[in-house]
Amino acid sequence: MKKNILGILISLFVISLTGCYDLDRFPQDKLSSSTYWNTEEQAVQAVNACYVAMRQTEVFSQLFGMDCVSDIGFGYDAQGYLAISNGTFTSTSTYASNRWAQTYEGVFRTNNVIRNVQEMDINEEKKSQIIGQAKFLRSLFYFFLMQHFGGVPLYDETTDYNKDYMDMLKPRNSEEETRAFILKDLTEAINNLPVKWGSADSGRATKGAAYALRGKVYLHNKQYDLAAKDFEEIVLDPESKGYGYELYPNYADLFTQTGHRSSEMIFSIQTYFQVGYNLGMPYAHYMGSNACIGTSWNNVMPSVELVDSYECKDGKPFNWNDFIPGYNESTEVRVKTLRATLAADLKSVASYPEYYDELLAMYEQRDPRMKETIILPYTHYMGYVGGKNTLCEFVYATGITTINGFIVVNRYSNSTYYLYLYRKFVPEGDMGISGLSRDHVPIDFPIIRYADVLLMLAECYNEQGKLGDAVQYINMVRQRPSVNMPGINSGPAWLEARTKEEVFKRIMHERAVEFPAEGLRYYDIKRWGVAKALMNGDATDALGNHIYYTKFEDKDNLWPIPSSEIDKNPSLTQNPGWQ
Q1: Is residue 568 part of a domain?
Q2: Pairing mode, strands 349-351 and 341-342
Q3: What is the pLDDT of residue 163?
Q4: How many domains does the chain contain in total?
Q5: At what angle do helices 207-220 and 450-463 cross, to 10 degrees?
Q6: Listed residues 425, 440, 455: the one ending a domain
């Protein structure tokens, strides 16, 4: 993990937010930490390396997969989702050690920037903005560590990783100390970051992003008054500072190149793809199916519980029996709803399910976000098969293959299990991009978007007894033009939410259906104290077939400190319940 600035720049092709720096400007035989910190451009390159650290595998590159260890996700992987879900996760798991080490790598890069840039003889405003970005990112990395491990050792810019590597043996700070450090960084970032950047720097951390993240840190500590003030700063824009955040009209387009850089995105991982500069996200690899470019894995999938939780268009809770009588009680009825038979040549469907028409009609009567998030049975998806864009159908049947135009569930056979797949973030065909890679899809990944802030503000108001204000912001998210779900408390009894408990349930629901595959649910259900109730059970398919058991104990509220880190630093203490 040890790298100096030369290693960072050379190995990661340090990028600006809108393009790539030409490393030929700084030949390897001349670039070193002793000669580097001289120009404003070098300082910018160095902070860019901090942004690049966000896309490391166990930092935010695969954060969408964390839904697999919550009630709205289902997954199989070789990297840890299944082990976390079924209770076989341990302090020796590479998932824990990589998350610790790679996130600290981001911390050390930000420390390197802060320590060196503050001594540079460059424009003071530019210096403040660069340090402000580094402190925002450092707070983001430390908050990510705290969400998993609780209190962690705090290393700031006084630690020179290159010189002090062998002496980095600090004990863990308390969670309160860790939080205070994060909040201090964010306050300084707020004071130094601009409300907006020019187009050439679009995507960098802003004042609004720092307010939003600070509010989130307060919220996770149940400091609802302070959190609300930070969220109000950008929602109410009290001094007309011009934040300009708003809900994007079309939900589906937020997760494509059409809307991924809209004014809803408060802070996101910026992506870029060009042959030779692969800086996208691995959505296709892990959420895509065999019909996706690169014949992908689909080990990150939506759960049956998520799909069934989308309301009817009139806001009424969904019930299968309302559309297909007997579905809830009878496996036979479910099979008649979902099972097809292929023709003898396996190239077409000989007979669709008996309740095919009712199934498709039901889709049209649901919250529109369902179809925009999930590839549902007997709907179509533009895949990439045999080197060309191919419209594929998702069918549950024996004998299906992608070469014949069907979507195959790669991890679990369609003929054995009845599972769902993600449409959200997954590229359609080759996106019109020559040489597109399944690991580098150029769709930005949101860390914080405006809908998240609105629902967090609603949560704060609900906790403060301001139920009417809370409902107002829930309804704003529900009534995005492309979604247009009926407002809470707008008429029918099933839309009523008049108590704190009822409004909280609405917030829980809305966050579940608004943010699938954005990696928020796992952290939500832990901080709400409901993970144990939701994550001890049976992960099943749509027929109720058992696939694996889920297990969540009290100790799972914090991850184990990796044993490899304790071996290197004996002053580290282990979290309760772990060895």
Answers
A1: no
A2: antiparallel
A3: 79
A4: 2
A5: 40
A6: 440
**Taking CA 145 as the corner, what is the angle to CA 139 and CA 148, rounded to the nearest 5 degrees?**
140
Which of 414, 440, 466 is the endpoint of a domain? 440
HSE-CB for 206 with a 13 A CA cutoff: 23
Same domain, 35 and 158: yes
Per-residue pLDDT of 139-194, as tens digits, reads 999 999 999 999 999 999 999 877 776 778 999 999 999 999 999 999 999 999 99
User: Is 5 a residue whose pLDDT tops 70?
Assistant: no
pLDDT tens, 453-502? 999 999 999 999 999 999 999 999 999 999 999 999 999 999 999 999 99
- Residue 163 structure tokens: 């010189």
Residue 165 CA: distances (Å) to CA of 8, 170, 246, 523 = 16, 12, 44, 31
Q: Do 319 and 409 reside in the same domain of the chain?
A: yes
Residues 199 and 316 in one domain: no
CA atoms within 13 A on the CB side of 492: 10
Q: How far is CA 12 from CA 57, 275, 501, in A?
A: 13, 15, 48
b vs e for 356-389, b when ≥16 Cβ sit within 10 Å of the residue's Cβ?
Answer: beebeebbeebbbbbbbbbbbbbeebebbbeeee
CA–CA distance, 521 with 67 (Å, rounded to integer): 6
Q: DSSP state, 324?
A: S
pTM for the complete prediction? 0.93
Rounded Cα distance between 456 and 507, Å, is 9
HSE at residue 236, side-chain half, CA atoms within 13 A, is 10
Q: Is there a single domain that holds both residue 23 and residue 170? A: yes
CA atoms within 13 A on the CB side of 245: 26
316 shares a domain with 190: no
Q: Give the integer Cα–Cα distance in Å for 521 and 511.
A: 8
Element (H, E) at 192: helix 175-192
pLDDT in tens, 47-57: 999 999 999 99
Is 330 domain-assigned? yes
Domain around 156? 5-83+92-223
Residues 182, 62 share a domain: yes
Whole-angstrom distance, CA of residue 130 vs CA of residue 114:
8
Q: Which of 261, 186, 193, 264 is nearest to 230 (CA)?
A: 186
- Same domain membership, residue 394 and residue 311: yes
Kindly state whether residue 252 falls inside one of the protein's structural domains. no
Judge contact between 2 and 165, C-beta under 8 A: yes
- Is residue 254 domain-resident? no
HSE (CB half, 13 Å, CA atoms) of 87? Answer: 14
219 and 292 together in one domain: no
Here the CATH number for the domain that contains residue 100 is 1.25.40.390
Burial per residue of 311-340, b for 16 or more beta-carbon CB atoms within 10 angstroms, e otherwise: bbeebeebebeebbeebeeeeebbebbbbb
